[in-house]
Amino acid sequence: MMRSMTAFARIGAEKAGTELTWELRSVNHRYLEMFVRLPDELRALEPQVRERVSARLGRGKLECVLRWRVSVQLADSLELDLDRLKAVLDACREIETRSSEAASPGVMELLRWPGVVRDPEPETEPLQAFALELLDQALDELVATREREGEKIRALLVTRLDGIEQQVEKVRERLPQVQARIRDKLQARLSDLDTRVDNDRLEQELLFLLQKMDVDEELDRLAGHVVETRRVLDRDGPVGRRLDFLMQEFNREANTLGSKSADGETTAASVELKVLIEQMREQVQNVE
User: Cα(138)–Cα(8) distance, rounded to whole angstroms?
Assistant: First the structure.
């Protein structure tokens, strides 16, 4: 299924008093490029995060952010560092023995002393497993979004391919009339010269002129590119680079068709082809 490279996913959940939230944001890029931001406590997860993302995505610039928040219940609980508290109290008593003016600190002052109250820290190992589980869910959501957007792009591309086929058929049907007009125009000019022309020589010149302006090959290649593009659209996996190459081939044939054109309608068809191809090219830039 075709995928877009632009998508966003956000998954959050709480466990053991800690809330984790993944935010994944991807945009189009030539290759897969990741920017991973993790809390310091979970920094060791980065290699596993990159490995899991690489297994699911082929292209795109991805910002991968994990946010950590301690729940209110856990934040409200106090955990004392008894060794630190004893050291502070011993220091206070030492000061009191040396100075009669020294006052003993109150309970609230002791609680505010750096290191006496420790910030609650959940166990790291279960939290890492939980973070990776949430990452898989976020990747599922991101991929699903990319696939939905990819199907929209696919529908737009199919519509443009239908338009290209119509323009190719229009030019093909017009070819006999164009060739007849070239023949009539050449004969009319020779008549104006009021001179005798060898018929064999005339046919040779006419054949050379028709070959110079013949666009059958370009039309055949355009039709072939349409068939190949439809085949690529039905493939599984990343197809963006293949489609990008096909857009270049489409554009080359449309330019050649326009340069060989000896007819206003053929020129108009060439311009319409370029418009359709450019519209496809813009959409293909965002395909994985």
Answer: 9
